[in-house]
């Protein structure tokens, strides 16, 4: 897992914010999550993601896409749909998904 934020991209672009609380049993989660990363990384227009989990169990993943069409390809991928169904059945106590168009973006990196 990276410790650097995803670079700022030239707006507009799209972000999907997935906030969740997982169940105590996450058997199989890491393997399926790795497969989902492989799939989404191959989608033209996918820009990257950031993910964090609090000690209390709240997880937030923000995925970035060049446009809504790229996000739609991800949402409609059959393996992703099966993973979402498994997540609701086995791994998530609750979640929310927020999709937004980014209008402004900038970043900072300390030199040295």
Automatic annotation (TrEMBL):
| UniProt KW Oxidoreductase keyword | yes
Domain named ABM: which ranges?
Answer: 21-86
A GO term, aspect molecular function: monooxygenase activity
Q: InterPro entries recorded for this chain?
A: ABM_dom (IPR007138), Dimeric_a/b-barrel (IPR011008), Jasmonate_Hydroxylase-like (IPR052936)
Top-rank lineage group of the source organism: Bacteria
What keywords appear on the UniProt entry?
A: Monooxygenase, Oxidoreductase
PANTHER family to which the protein is assigned, alphabetical: ABM DOMAIN-CONTAINING PROTEIN, BLL5343 PROTEIN
The protein's name in its UniProt record: Antibiotic biosynthesis monooxygenase
């Amino acid at each position: 897992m990276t410790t650097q934020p995803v670079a700022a991209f030239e707006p507009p672009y799209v972000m999907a914010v997935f906030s969740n609380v997982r169940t105590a049993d996450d058997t199989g989660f890491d393997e399926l999550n790795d497969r989902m990363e492989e799939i989404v990384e191959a989608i033209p227009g996918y820009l990257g993601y950031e993910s964090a989990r609090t000690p209390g169990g709240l997880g937030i993943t923000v995925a970035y896409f060049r446009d809504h069409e790229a996000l739609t390809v991800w949402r409609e991928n059959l393996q992703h749909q099966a993973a979402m169904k498994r997540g609701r059945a086995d791994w998530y106590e609750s979640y929310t998904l927020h999709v937004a168009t980014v209008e402004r973006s900038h970043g900072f990196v300390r030199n040295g």
